[in-house]
Design a protein that fits this description.
CATH topology of one domain: Thrombin, subunit H
Shape: globular
Largest sheet: 5 strands, antiparallel
CATH class of one domain: Mainly Beta
Helix content: 10-25%
Structural class: alpha+beta
Number of strands: 12
CATH architecture of one domain: Beta Barrel
Strand content: 25-35%
């Protein structure tokens, strides 16, 4: 029997439901997404490092000690899922701020605003009441998950961390306990700002080389990731 421990990299499949309604709100299994009519485009293997906050706390904690290849289920309270609802996250915004962006808000609409999924509660008198709470905030959730396998290949680990921290894949090579990224000129500051967690997780140092040649990067901004500050 193979079990998972903290700091292991694993490939994970999951289905997440709201406990109260049994509604599926997130998954990385194509068939489940289609059944729930979720607009998810990327179903590439989902790889995380256990215990490093790459999933919501309740799920991350539940992974430790679980058996590989076996289906598991966990109920998670709001405070260890997507947080409790916060009345201070409900704000009044002038309608003109939306119109300037060619957005015409209607009650019940969900849209992306400043990188967050928000819900329009009302639109009246030139003012729009907007809920910035995560749509699943305040809800108990159920995650049914299977750990497909442990990941041992270092390149897969680096790419998994790139997707999580950068939402892009940059070219890199491994040499002398070092990850050497090659990036387009001007992007090195971006990588430097988030490179420390990668060094700590992998125990490798990072070196960044700039090039004048435009790099082909894979943008993963739409990737399903069950983490606390995002929701699909």
């Amino acid at each position: 029997m193979t079990t998972v421990q903290k700091n292991d990299f694993i490939q994970l499949e999951f289905v997440a439901r709201i406990k109260e309604t049994n509604e599926v709100f997130d998954t990385n299994i194509k068939e489940e997404a289609e059944k729930a009519k979720l607009d998810i485009k990327d179903f590439s293997p989902f790889i995380i490092c256990v215990g490093k906050g790459m999933a919501i706390k309740g799920l991350d904690d539940a992974l430790n000690g679980k058996e590989v290849g076996k289906e598991h289920s966990i109920e998670i309270k709001p405070e260890e899922a997507f947080g409790k609802r916060d009345s201070n996250m409900v704000k009044m915004i002038p309608l003109r701020a939306f119109i300037q962006q060619k957005v015409y808000p209607e009650k019940g609409m969900q849209l992306s605003l400043d990188g967050m999924i928000v819900k329009i509660l009302s639109n009246s008198g030139g003012r729009v009441l907007v809920d910035f709470n995560n749509p699943i905030a305040g809800r108990e959730v159920i995650y049914k998950f299977t750990i497909i396998k442990k990941i041992e290949e270092i390149k897969e680990k680096v790419n998994a961390l790139q997707e999580f921290f950068f939402r892009k894949k940059f070219d890199f090579e491994l040499k002398d306990k070092k990850i050497i990224f090659t990036v387009q000129k001007g992007l090195s500051k971006f990588l430097e700002a988030v490179s420390k967690p990668i060094e700590e997780i992998l125990g490798l140092s990072i070196e960044i080389k700039e090039t004048d040649i435009k790099e082909k990067t894979e943008d993963k901004t739409e990737k399903t990731f069950p983490k606390e500050n995002s929701n699909k």
